[in-house]
Amino acid sequence: MSKTQHTPGSFCWFELGTTDQNAAKKFYAAIFGWKPHDSPIGPDEVYTQFKIDGQDAAAGYTLRPDQRAQQVPPHWMPYISTKNTDATTARAKELGGTVVVEPLDVMDYGRMSVIQDPTGAVFCLWQPNKNVGTGVTNVHGTVVWADLSTTDQVNGAKFYSNLFGWTMVGENMKPAAPGTYFHIVNGKTMIGGVPPAEYRAPGVPSHWLLYYQVDDCDGAVTKTKSLGGHVVVPTMAMGDVRKYAVLADPQGAMFAVVQELGGAEPAKGVKKDAKGAKKSAKRARKPKKARKPAKKAVAKKARKAAKPKRAAKAKARKPKRKGKAKK
Fold first, then answer.
1. CATH class, 11-135+288-304 region
2. 143-286 topology per CATH
3. Nearest to residue 51, comparing CAs of 82, 25, 78?
4. Has residue 297 got a pLDDT over 60?
5. Parallel, antiparallel, or unpaired: how do β-strands 230-238 and 167-169 relate?
6. Cα(first)–Cα(last) distance of the chain, in Å?
7. CA of 9: how far to CAs of 140, 189, 212, in Å?
8. Are 254 and 233 within 8 A, CB to CB?
9. 193 to 162, 181, 275, 318, 322: CA distances (angstroms)
10. What is the pTM assigned to this prediction?
11. What is the radius of gyration, based on Cα positions, of the chain?
12. pLDDT of 22-62, one tens digit each?
């Protein structure tokens, strides 16, 4: 399905920072069928747009030496759409967030900044101009969900609710209770979740984990292993509704895959498979601790690139297909 705009507060761009860009292009092309398109952004540097049927689905770049020196690991970074990057950045700071990269223009494509929430998870803001973000959704190889794995569920969720107006709901679409799985609703659309701390592996830094829709979850897991990637959380089934797995590419960037099975959602509204989520969390390996992206490197590359850009961090937990929030 093509996408021509992104509602403010929704995830609009997904960017891979890696240590081996050429290897990553081959890996993700095999897993998701992406067609890479490289754009020069500096001496011996290119920015790769990953395309599906000619539309942007994600992007990638090579981590710079100063980022590696700060031990920034390979990662997937989410961008969140906003009407005004400067105002939202200022608001994030008021709410206790840290501005990693101040607002800057990416040519005439849009305006961005990089924010770290109060619990440590990093994301980017994107104010579109000529580039709204990804151009395709809800097909094999596109992001359909994002989980915030945070050390402080209540305060982490509160930060984003105050910043973007997100609503956190639980079973029967009632306000989510602390310690249960929070479903993130942006407007009337579910876009992600916030698992409780008990579902996290001890010591793992807060981060965002992106879920990519696939036609065959088991096949994606098998292919990931055959290509040198790793299985972080083996395939978990949520009844006959969907199944998912958490994986890592050969360079270490973590992501998840989710397959819709066609079964009906629970009759009483939104529920999460707590038993399965808890079990999968305990299986997850502890990732290398990520650090803030290098400010100078981020700003330099963002100014040169012809697409939304940069930052550092991503990793861990459960999916639910985007859709209208039930009343």
1. alpha beta
2. 2,3-Dihydroxybiphenyl 1,2-Dioxygenase; domain 1 (3.10.180)
3. 25
4. no
5. unpaired
6. 25
7. 23, 10, 19
8. no
9. 16, 7, 16, 8, 11
10. 0.85
11. 18
12. 999 999 999 999 999 999 988 889 999 999 999 999 999 99
